[in-house]
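Input:
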Amino acid sequence: MPTNDITLTVNGERHDLSLDTRTSLLDALRERLDLTGAKKGCDHGQCGACTVLLDGRRVNSCLVLAVAHDGAEITTIEGLAEPDGELHPLQTAFVEHDAFQCGYCTPGQICSAVGMLAEAAAGWPSVVTEDLVADATDPAALSDGEIRERMSGNLCRCGAYAHIVPAIADVAGRR
Amino acid sequence: MRPFAYERAEEAAGAIATLTDGAPGAMYLGGGTNLVDLMKLGVAAPDLLVDVSHLPHDRVEQLPDGGLRIGAAVLNSTLAADRTVRERYPVLSQALLAGASGQLRNLATVGGNLLQRTRCAYFMDVSKPCNKRVPGSGCPAREGDHRNHAIIGHSEACVATHPSDMAVALVALGATVEVRGAAGARTIPLPGLHRLPGDAPERDTVLDPGDLITAVVLPPSAPGAVSRYRKIRDRASYAFAVVSIAALLELDEDGAVREARIAFGGLAHAPWRALVAEEELRGLPATAESFGRAADAELAQARPLRDNGFKVPLARNLTVRTLGELAAQAERRSGR
Ligand SMILES: Cc1cc2nc3c(=O)[nH]c(=O)nc-3n(C[C@H](O)[C@H](O)[C@H](O)COP(=O)(O)OP(=O)(O)OC[C@H]3O[C@@H](n4cnc5c(N)ncnc54)[C@H](O)[C@@H]3O)c2cc1C
Ligand code: SF4
Ligand code: FES
Ligand code: FES
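Output:
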């Protein structure tokens, strides 16, 4: 059973791991590092429950082979709050807006929203953006339609979308 | 999942040598968003993955002739957001943004996107026969669930479609794919990369084992042309195309069609370049009637299956609507 030795920096902490090459990043986080915040929904890239930030970009960790990312920096839901325990603004907004029911999709929703707002701040358009060449999109100006499209990679079986969108809009506007 | 060895390729020559010198079970790995999925399903079972996503093919470069060279390892999200692509090739940006999700686009590479495999449910289920997966085993989609399958260019052996949105835009743009293999480098003008199934549906493309896609080259954009990508799907976002269109339109001084370039997704085993429609449109006034006539001429070749005849009017209406929007945009731009 081929194994590879890799190093991952997860939420600022360095880990040296010897992994079966078949291990997904999601399984490495959950089974080896005991970080069970990122959830396994579909394990096929179809639901977004496993979303984490890989070198700053939001990705589906279930389709990522951990050994392909030796040296990477990963942020999971466990790493978003301040060291003193103060929640990330998106975490606070999800609580305030009651943006979940069972909570299974929530860590993925929040990590995805962190990545999404960074993408918007970098001026990335979406498929519903009318003017592709306009300069940087102001995250505060993201319409509900923009937020829904940009967050479409995160499914919520409880259908909490009606509260998720305003929670994200709130944080986008507060920046 | 079958155990496999993993290697990160540092340069192209070494990666190609590994795949062409007697490692029949080896495959290239891009972002893994299709390959890892297929490995989990048992559809792909490589014994060695050669990771080509870290090769130095990660740049979007302006070419002296005004074209653009896009490295095969460039991420779909990076390419969609690229300023030059947004300004000069909006159809490509829109096609990329219409595909998958923000998370998947942050992993998917240009090379991997071109070579992603069909989403035919029988192909992805190893308990079912499928000529593409196991040549000669049969094609259950022909009589089974084929609502989302091909209506044009299909064969007795296979009725699958190619799922990529990006590839449809690249075909309309007349892009060229740069490939390196055992015999050296060559270029493949699109739509020449993806095959029609014929009696060998196990071959999606004309590539030989070990061929590495290194880049995609876009020709200079015609200054007068406008372009856009439109995708119809079963839900508003995060779903593969039922039918999609990539179209470029250039009008002359009188508002007639100087040149149209049209490619469809969701209709065939390869992105479908609508040459008949393009020819039909040349010189016609840019009206809904002309666009409908051109679409009808193209779709006269369609041979829908029992449950996907709806794709014919869908493709027609999508053509009329998209070209209509482009004509209005071209008129606005020329101040008529
Ligand atoms: C839930 C879901 C929804 C999706 N929706 C869409 C959609 O709506 N539209 C769409 O277009 N796509 C969609 N996709 C597919 C996605 O776009 C592809 O999986 C992705 O583009 C593949 O790129 P990759 O780099 O991850 O390829 P990989 O999975 O790494 O590789 C794919 C294939 O290409 C080969 N390969 C990779 N790089 C090279 C190279 N440089 N040279 C030669 N061979 C190479 C690999 O060996 C493999 O056979 C979806 C995927 C998922 C999981
Ligand atoms: S349509 Fe093609 S891919 Fe689908 S079952 Fe038939 S042979 Fe296989
Ligand atoms: S668990 Fe990764 S996308 Fe569903
Ligand atoms: S809160 Fe239950 S799945 Fe989203």
